[in-house]
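Dear colleagues,

As part of the handover before I leave the project, I'm documenting each prediction I ran so the next person doesn't have to rerun anything. This entry is a single chain, and its sequence is reproduced below.
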Amino acid sequence: MSSSELKKSRRSMLILLAVFIIPIVLAKLALNQQWFNYGVTNQGQLIENELTLAKLGLNVDDFEHQWLMLYTLPERCDEQCEKTLISVHHTYIALGKEMPRVKPVALTQQTLSSEQANKIQIKKWHIQTMPALAKAAITQSQVLIVDPLGNVILSHLPPENAEQLPAFGKAILADFKKLLKYSRIG
């Protein structure tokens, strides 16, 4: 073998080794340095403590064993609350063919005005006053995702300003679509 053929052979061998070794080294670095937020697929906050509709003072049978998009309204529903309510309603509509599997529920601390009720097309929503148990368990306004068995799975906190509402709705929609895709119940 001539020296030029030997150099070509060594170069080919080094390139081949680099093609296989560099991705492994980069993957190891990515894991050790935590470059990625691995293991998280949900957009909302996972409920760690067991929370069920029964613990909130609600009856599962009232909701026909469907998935629930449960919005707990604040004590006084101001303009931001109304915008959030409309955003949650649009998220419900964006479910498309999965809408029959989901029931939107609003837990209010005061009755909604006729203007607020018109904005969310009250026929599709189940509006209920918040039971005392729910007031004790839920301290802030949020959107809860509840499975057909009555277990609260995820929580989404409404944004502070109206500019963040589209991202808020998309996060709820992404979580719902993923749950409904993999669920065989409800």
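The domain at 45-182 is CATH 3.40.30.10 (Glutaredoxin). The CA atoms of residues 142 and 154 lie 10 Å apart.

All the best with the project,
I.
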